[in-house]
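Bench notes, afternoon.
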Amino acid sequence: MTPPLRSAAVAGTWYPASSGALAREVDRYVETAGESPEGAIQAIVVPHAGIMFSGPVGACAFKAAARQDYDVSVLVGPSHFAAFDGVALYPEGAFAGPFGPIDVDAAVAAAIAAESDAIRPLTSVHAREHSLEMQLPFLGRLFPGLPIVPLLMGRQSRRTIEALTSALAAGLGSRRALLVASTDLSHYFDAATAGTLDGDVCEAIAAFDPERLLEVFERYGEDERGRYVGCGIGPAIAVMMAARALGARAAR
């Protein structure tokens, strides 16, 4: 049986469907991203709005990471359309990328899933989801041939965050992995309010303090966290904690 190919859901709407047009757009964002911080990059936190909005920010992170070589990229994002407990893994096959298919590293996916019952194969919830797909333009352009492990977090409970953290740290072992957390920040506030809310998140990330970020996240009820803090803060916390377990010591 041929492994499944996950079709693009937002090509032509959230980013150009033409590989040529998209390459020019990605290259422009990367060129204008400015100087990258020094040091090895274990993980990045990136947005997932339409590329005309999120591209300049995502480019800063991917440009910094592109100075290094990796064995695999582990993508962790929120599920916007399906509610479920735990983490949904796309275990094998490929994602249709804008510059060609991007393979799923089935061996790494299995190693991570083996570490926790909270992680299970569930390909159906990936079909419409944009939070991981919006990272493919940068991955395909800057990291050609790099395989991925796609993970979507359902209900972002402390228990799920901690389970994913442990599974990533143990399952990746000595592999050179780029961890990618996909999240937007507060939603639908005026600029002043959004700046205050988002400032709390950015300060916790810059301080490399995932426990503080979790405290900010849990100030709000489960139905309010996505609006007041960010839709993928659970994935961001798990990625920060896993990066620390894998050797990261500071953040920018």
